[in-house]
Design a protein that fits this description.
The chain has about 130 residues and is mostly helical. It is built from five helices and no strands. It has helices spanning about 5-25, 35-55, 60-65, 80-100, 100-125. The longest helix is centred in the C-terminal third of the chain and has 25 residues, at about 100-125. It starts with a helix and ends in a 6-residue tail after the last helix.
Amino acid sequence: MQIYPYGVWLALASLAGLIFFALSARKRGLKAETAGWLGVTALPLSVLLARLFYCLCRLTWFCEQGFGWFFRMTEGGFMMYGALLGVLLAAGITAKVTGQKVFPILDTLAAPGFLTYALGRCGDLICSQGYG
């Protein structure tokens, strides 16, 4: 298994955003389990939807590669829009599971989400990714 610096950078950006969200959630009076549920649901949903959006945008090419390519995550091909949708869905799931309203969770997620995105874009620059 090969570990890519860009993947490590994105994982650290996500961790920084989740920690920032947990601290902000505590200050805003959200339930203690909110950050945990958001982290557990946002990671898989954002990765899968980022991959799905990429495949849909390059549908002809994806069909040529075969369906198995979807699961070869180390070969690249993700879209930030899909990741954003995954995080939004995770916020909705978190609200439902924890018995809270979704808008306070989304409001608390705004600054940590921006931090995660900004750090991820810095990773693009440092690792020469995301051009085009």
